[in-house]
Amino acid sequence: MNNELYHYLLRLDNSRHIVRELVRGLLAEGLNWTPELPAGADPMNPIGALVVHLAGAEHHWFSEVIGGAPPTRDRDAEFAYLAPNAEEPLARLDAVAAASEVVLGKLTAADLDDEKLAVDRMMPVRFIILHIIDHYALHIGHMQITYQLWSQGRAFQAPRWFERRTTRD
Fold this sequence. Notes:
Blueprint: H1 3-23, H2 28-32, H3 47-66, H4 75-80, H5 87-105, H6 109-112, E1 115-118, E2 121-124, H7 125-150
Antiparallel strand pairs: 1-2
Helix pairs in contact: 1-5, 1-7, 3-5, 3-7
């Protein structure tokens, strides 16, 4: 595996680890909670739905767009999802991570420069991978804010940059 791809996979590992740690131990009430917002405000998404959304997006971009698997994504259902417990959305995330590992593990340095058809345009494979890494970062931030509001101010402490893994074990 080339060094660039190794570091992309390491960053994905770290992002999934943060999601798992944030979600682990939450009951359905916390996973499905959203704050009460003023009339007319845009809705917020519950933590459990964001986990399923991250898994759906990762599967779509890696397995379907890069890997060529048939399309199965139902984006609207991801946001309507209600978690029965922490284990169920985390199992989905783990299953997608395993599938992504297979797809990305086969890529060569030349494949990273290739382009894939996504919706109605060609997208560089490297851009797709970076998009998913950015997507995780965005929604981890959303989950952290929701967690802090739900827990009445107690913040989830994600590992700081120097506490994150620097090798894939």
